[in-house]
Design brief:
Two copies of one chain form a homodimer. Chain A is globular. Chain A has a four-stranded antiparallel sheet with strand order 1-2-4-3, sandwiched between helices. Helices cover 41% and strands 16% of the residues of chain A. Chain A has one domain: 3-Layer(aba) Sandwich (NADH Oxidase), CATH 3.40.109. By secondary structure, chain A is an alpha+beta fold. The first copy, chain A, has eight helices and five strands, in the order H-H-E-H-H-E-H-H-E-H-E-H-E. Strand 1 of chain A pairs parallel with strand 5 of chain B.
């Protein structure tokens, strides 16, 4: 499937075959592509919680307005981010020449340190980028997906034992669709969302 | 190019052929794919400012630490979001059955109204998702890209006449690479960024 087809065919799917599981290899393939997503300064602040355990899935579903895709999909990926990923940044450039590494590391820490809004923005931005990688890669693998924010993030944090300084940004269900999406709800025309040169 | 190849081959490119322009049709194709990106509740809060004008590009470059890709790339897309996109939400579901539309519209307004952090999170999240659509679609079209946050957003807002209640989330340069990217700087191992079931 080419990239254009994947972009067109990716739709938010709510009904999945509850009997279908993904293999460990498939999950690894999906996530190996997710981590090729770009992050600012290569900060790789995302963390991906792959939930398969039925009891945890049941708890997540209850904290997500009982939406059935949370238990019926093959996997749920809760996208989280480390808000303090700018600490210890040298490892994000360990394979770069020493002078590059030594220039970038203090720049990364200085850019984010003390700016909590920026740290949170980066969490949402990085996870958004990775989310689309996951959804398009899933499509390439013959799977469907649904990005979701309709859940109680505090309950999710308790269920998943989220560490301090981490934030949950969204979740994605991935599985085998048993019912296709309805038509798109109401696309805004390109002229409304695209501006040339300035507003 | 299949989606996996696009994900692998997308790298952040800094050196572009300054003599290469994209046609209006190519830009439209790229953005027609961008707007197929999902947004929460189909809120379509992103706005894409496509900057080609050389004088504006020069000003943006000065406000972006003089990074050369801002003037050398074929186009610059400044991704912005309407923080008040939850106002007047009925149009996002104009093609859905009336009962669906009437259920969703007040839900959308209620979900975001008065919660400025959530409005900003949604700006970053939606633009992140659309950003990866743009970068992968560009790759499919034979172009390279670079996602950027290294700029002064206040100066950008003045240069672009950004309306009130809008926020700039990032920018992407798109063009013909004349120098390939270096090797990846230092990928974290999958085991560090993937968690199974809970932390």
């Amino acid at each position: 499937m080419n990239t254009f087809e994947a972009i067109h065919q990716r739709r938010s799917i709510k009904q999945y075959d509850p009997g279908h599981g993904m293999t460990k290899e498939e999950i690894t393939t999906l996530l190996e592509h997710a981590i090729l997503s770009p992050t600012s300064f290569n900060i790789q602040n995302w963390r991906f919680v792959v939930v398969q355990d039925p009891e945890i899935r049941k708890q997540l579903k209850e904290a997500a307005w009982n939406q059935i895709q949370v238990t019926d999909a093959s996997i749920v990926i809760v996208l989280c981010a480390n808000l303090k990923a700018h600490h210890n940044p040298i490892r994000y450039w360990k394979d770069a020449p020493e002078e590059v590494r030594n220039m970038l590391a203090p720049m990364i820490t200085g850019f984010y340190e003390g700016n909590e809004q920026l740290q949170r923005d980066e969490a949402m931005r990085s996870c958004g980028i990775a989310a689309q990688t996951i959804m398009l890669a899933a499509k390439e693998m013959g799977y469907d997906s649904c990005p979701m924010i309709g859940f109680d993030p505090e309950k999710f944090a308790r269920i998943l034992d989220l560490p301090d300084d981490f934030v949950i940004t969204m979740m994605i269900t991935v599985g085998k669709a048993i019912q296709q999406a309805h038509g798109r709800g109401g696309q805004l025309p390109l002229e409304e969302v695209v501006v040339y040169d300035k507003f």
